[in-house]
Design a protein that fits this description.
Length: about 625
């Protein structure tokens, strides 16, 4: 019963303890007066005065506590600020600092429900200058620094919150700590948030390693590094799948997408067989400009490897019997094809050449129709300055911009900021992010298959994750844990994933693979319910009052009345769903692996040496 009485303490009730304390104090003063201004014996009254004063203090203590809670709840929590150097001092080797707060328990649930069933304005709980209800954080015990074990992030993390609630600021706090711990960090930012980029860059400067920062953004090609999203693969089919996943389709069995994927696989196999590294520009040239040059290179490489010298003379002899060439079928190529079919195929067949021959013989008009959905994807990834940014020529000494790929970023523990500039061109930004995630998945596959060097961990942060969500993202969430990859996704609502995939079941696959959920202010009702349903239920005590009366119709004197109070328990959400829409900026509820529920708030990351750090960055870029 004692525990239930504590749960039902109401901070907005009258302070009866203060009245009792006042009575004890006045009684003590009266005893003092009687002891010194009457002829009555002094010692008894002095003893009574001491007892009264002690009781006055004893009764005043709970009243003061009640007033303190009431004041804290009504005042809320002001915004806090923290400098990066102070944040680094807060760090612990095997933990991540996530602001201040407390563990949310059933006591806070009862307190919150008590406030929700009343009129907040009547209680004086008006909103502060910032959006949200500050009293949510104030109903708990005194806040303490929140430290989350690094192992918690092994289960992947989802950050959800409406625009301006603090998703980017939360990721900034984690990114600075990851950089300081020496991890490889990859930041995918569709909206190209300047503060997020600068926070990552300043973190590298603060730890004395400015060279770790790698910047990519198609909006600033002259300052951007070059990235090769087709660099990492184990089988050529991976590259075909990587590009084909960007093709819009109405169903999983879309024949146009299947045909385009077959074409991509054939071209990539041909490039590999001809000893060329595949990139987007070469693939586009082979498909859009005609397959004949690639077929000729592939045949030449195949003949050279198997036959050595002498095969060219045999082909020239066969070419004299070939009919007059057409623009699409040059005489030398036809001779090479005939030589392959008559002299080489039986003993030394090549799947790459067979696929290219099939494309070479395909009806040109039908072929153009079937790849109509593939060409726009290739065009938008190779047009303008994107051609050099995403299909870099490593032997071009005239271009001073560095060339990177995911594997080199990871192995050298770099901090990659990948800005997608989706506000300017959402389709291109989404395609770049998706194909880069596919390259990351391939690199994680290598680490998973061949082991993790020095137990190096990779921390991946994806803001506005629905912008780059594909089936590859689901695979990355589901299977990358063993490769040391720790992923944090940020989104506004769960409906964003459903809209992106066109399937609620696939959206739930993303959610199911995130063991940790950090929720800031959420306005979408469906998302609120999903978050609340994912929490454990609790039993909360409820007081119910009942009244009744009865009177005899023939004898009004026979009247009776009754009044009763009952205490019972009922099941409730540990954190009420409506409160998710009332959280102030930078306040969050974190549901961690194992069911632990944290109510916390974050300070705004602020650099006291911002001008000096910006000057260092400018000088480093000039060098």
């Amino acid at each position: 019963m004692a525990a239930k009485k504590i749960l039902f303490q109401d901070p907005f009730r009258p302070a009866y303890e203060a009245i009792a304390s006042g009575v004890w104090f006045v009684t003590g003063l009266l005893a003092y007066y009687l002891a010194h201004h009457t002829i009555l014996p002094t010692p008894p009254f002095m003893g009574l005065m001491a007892v009264c004063l002690v009781m006055a203090v004893v009764r005043l203590i709970p009243a003061v506590r009640l007033w303190a809670v009431r004041y804290r709840v009504r005042e809320g929590c002001p915004l806090a600020f923290i400098a990066p150097k102070t944040l680094l001092r807060q760090m612990r080797p095997d933990q991540f600092w996530l602001g201040t707060g407390f563990e949310w328990t059933a006591a806070q649930t009862v307190f919150a429900n008590e406030i929700l069933r009343r009129d907040a304005r009547a209680l004086g709980l008006t909103e502060s200058a910032t959006p949200g209800a500050g009293w949510i954080h104030s109903i708990g015990p005194p806040e303490q620094p929140i430290y989350i074990p690094a192992t918690m992030f092994h289960g992947q993390t989802l950050v959800v919150g409406t625009t301006g609630a603090g998703k980017t600021r939360l990721m900034e706090t984690l990114i600075v700590q990851c950089v300081a711990k020496g991890h490889a960090v990859i930041i995918i930012d569709p909206k190209s948030d300047l503060d997020l980029r600068q926070s990552a860059q300043r973190a590298c400067h603060l730890v004395g390693q400015p060279e770790r920062f790698v910047f990519f953004n198609p909006a600033f090609p002259e300052h951007s590094a070059r990235l090769d999203p087709l660099r990492n693969w184990n089988r050529s089919t991976e590259l075909a799948n990587r590009i084909a996943s960007l093709i819009p389709s109405q169903s999983a069995s879309d024949p146009w997408k299947a045909f385009s994927q077959r074409v991509l696989d054939t071209v990539v196999s041909g490039l590999v067989a001809s000893r060329e590294l595949p990139n987007l520009l070469k693939i586009r040239a082979a498909i859009e400009g005609g397959i004949e040059p690639l077929l000729e290179k592939t045949l030449t490489a195949h003949f050279r490897d198997l036959l050595g010298d002498g095969w060219e003379a045999d082909i020239r002899e066969l070419s004299t019997t070939v009919l007059r060439p057409t623009p699409r079928k040059p005489r030398d190529l036809d001779g090479m094809i005939r030589y392959y079919k008559e002299k080489v195929r039986d003993d030394h067949p090549s799947t790459a050449i067979e696929g290219l021959l099939s494309m070479h013989q395909h009806d040109h008009a039908h072929f153009s129709k079937m790849i109509a959905s593939l060409l726009p994807v290739l065009n938008m990834l190779t047009s303008g300055h994107l051609a050099a940014l995403l299909s870099p020529n490593r032997t071009d000494d005239q271009d001073p911009r560095p060339v990177w790929d995911v594997a080199s970023i990871i192995n050298q523990q770099k901090v990659l900021y990948l800005g997608l500039d989706s506000l300017s061109d959402a389709m291109v930004g989404s395609a770049i992010g998706s194909i880069f995630l596919a390259d990351l998945t391939a690199a994680c596959g290598d680490r998973y298959n061949y082991g993790i060097q020095d137990q190096q961990e990779i921390f991946v942060f994806v803001d506005e994750a629905a912008e780059v969500a594909t089936d590859t993202l689901i695979q990355l969430l589901n299977k990358s844990r063993g490769s040391g990859t720790r992923i944090t996704l940020a989104t506004q609502t769960f409906a964003d994933f459903a809209a992106r995939f066109g399937s609620e079941s696939k959206a739930r696959q993303v959610l199911a693979n995130c063991n940790n959920v950090i929720a800031l202010r959420v306005l979408d009702g469906e998302t609120q319910e999903y978050l609340a349903d994912g929490l454990i239920k609790t039993k909360v005590p409820v007081i119910r009052e009942s009244e009744g009366e009865s009177a005899h119709s023939n004898n009004p004197v026979l009247y009776s009345a009754s009044y009763g109070t009952s205490l019972s328990e009922e099941e409730a959400d540990l954190f009420p769903a409506p409160l998710l829409g009332q959280l102030p900026n930078l306040h969050y509820i974190a549901k961690l692996t194992g069911g632990r529920l944290i109510k916390g708030r974050l300070p705004i990351l602020q650099s006291t040496l911002r001008v000096a750090a910006d000057e260092q960055i400018r000088r480093h870029q000039e060098r």
